[in-house]
Amino acid sequence: MQTIFFVPKDENPDDYVDDCSLWGLPIVHGVSNKLTEHNLNFEKAGVLKIPEKNNFFYKEEFPVGFHQKATLENDFYDLRNDFTLNVFNKRAGELEYENLKPFFAEKHRVRWVFQIIKTGKYDLTVLKNGEPFNDDKNIFYVFLREKLWN
Q1: Model confidence over 40-97: pLDDT tens digits?
Q2: How far is Cα 90 from Cα 92, in angstroms, rounded to an integer?
Q3: Residue 104: beta bridge partners?
Q4: The pTM is what?
Q5: I need a surface site. Which of 47, 68, 71, 141 has the fewest CB within 10 A?
Q6: Residues 6 or more apart from 63 whose CB is under 8 A from it?
Q7: Span 54-143: which CATH code?
C-alpha cells in the first residue's frame, strides 16, 4: 500500500510540512481522480493508506512432478479467510484440486503450493466464498521432463 498525507482543499498544506518531513510522506492537497476510486475519508487531514497491488503470480510452465506456487497479492481485500483455489486439467477435463486452502496467508498476500503429476494444460481459478474472484485466464502448462543424461 502507498502511504500519503492527505490535506483537504480548504486547508493549507504548509501547516503539515513538519509532520510529513518527519515520516517522509508525500503531501496530497485535494482529492485527485485516483483517490476518488477508493472509499477513503477525505474530510480531514491525516495519513491515508491507498491500496495499489492486485497481482497473481505463478509459473507458466514446468515439468511433471514439480510443485506449482501460486501467489495472490491484493491490497483491496483481507485475504486471510474465505479464499481457495481450484486447479482444472483442461486436457483431461477433470478437477485436480478443488477448494484448495492456502499454504500460508497474510492480510494482503496468500500462497498456494501443490504438486502436479500429469501433463497438460491447467486453469487456475481463485475463489472467494466459493465464487470466482476475478475473470482472468490463469493458465499454465506441465510437460514431460527430458532426460538429464544419455
Answers
A1: 778 888 898 888 888 999 999 999 999 999 999 999 889 998 999 999 999 999 999 9
A2: 6
A3: 111
A4: 0.76
A5: 47
A6: 142, 143, 144, 145
A7: 2.60.40.10
